[in-house]
Amino acid sequence: MKDYKEDFPILKQKVKGKPLIYLDNSATTQKPRQVIQAITNYYEKDNANVHRGVHELSMRASEAYEQAHQIVADFINAQFEEIIFTKGTTESLNLLAYSLGKNLKKDDEILLSEMEHHSNFVPWQQIAKEKGAKIKLIPLTKGYRLDMKAAEKLITKKTKIVSVTQYSNVLGTINPIKIIAKMAHKVNAIVIVDAAQSISHMKVDIKDLNCDFLAFSGHKMFAPTGIGVLYGKKQLLEKLEPYQCGGGMIQEVTLEKTTWNELPWKFEAGTPNIEGAIGLAKAIEYIEKIGRENIERYNEELTGYALKQLSPIKGLTIIGPKENKERGAVISFILEGLHPHDVGEILNQEGIAIRGGNHCAMPLMTSLKINGTNRASFHIYNTKEDIDSLIKAIKKAQDLFK
Ligand code: C6P
Fold it and tell me: 36, 135, 360, 391: which one is catalytic?
């Protein structure tokens, strides 16, 4: 692999007098020069509102915005009409909980898993409370995987929605979505995939997964913050009620009633994040140029190396699968006797950025009976030398607190 650090201007800086080592990619990835340049170009040359004007700039902005939908559609093997731009995974999942939630009845069941991020937990919890529906959770095995035998039993005729992450932001576990979708469809449940973490690390193909909806954020795949995607099967989106109302999403408004615009605009009320869409399209071009298989292979190599280096450290416990298969490039760990925030701070003194805390997954922390973890997460610009520096800094933190 080429040294991709060169494409990311932010990585050239020093922190606390040391070269920055950015290992917080599950929180957000850095942005390559190509994406930054695409956004600058848009503001310097094409900025206008979309779908409204007949003037040159508006036509250029509209064309780029629409093209971004097609680029995202091709990226996940969907159709143009099936791609809705949102603020991010959180908004995509809230949209679904609100709109699908309207059809829920008392005692209907929503099946999630113990490893869900709050974004795929709290919206369902709120709608369940309102409708008298029940939340059920697929438990974990001792090896930090979904207990599929338990899942089989939990999916019943009462199950209306199954919403599961493809790749845990804490454990790194990659879940068998295809099998879950098959089980859920047998009882006509709707299958939703949280692809926030998986989208930039592996090939995500909605037809292969056979999911009904899928959500992800641009900022975890080298694109700007504030842009995200909701994919939905066309026939399901056609039946779904809009989440927000306003300009752009209507066909006709009279005093008596309003009719909705065609897909995907029915779900995109108001002036959208045009620069975000342009940045996202550029980020996809960047990813495709490297090749998703190459990204997956490289991250697997880094993760394998990190697991090998971390495992023998005395007093360090890895919270997540120890084997380097069906797992992503994120490693959570606990250092005996050390608070994750203290570890994070000591590493910061070494120029190393990692995350410490509950990672917006408090139900998972409860199930594992821990308060939090430290988490190192890798991407294409990280190297084995970065991991060596991480190991050195961890040992330094342990020595400091001896
Ligand atoms: N996880 C992390 O550090 P937003 O914030 O909407 O872009 O993504 C929410 C989200 C949903 N699902 C999963 C699996 C996620 O990992 C995240 C975001 C970040 O782990 C920020 S808490």
Answer: 360
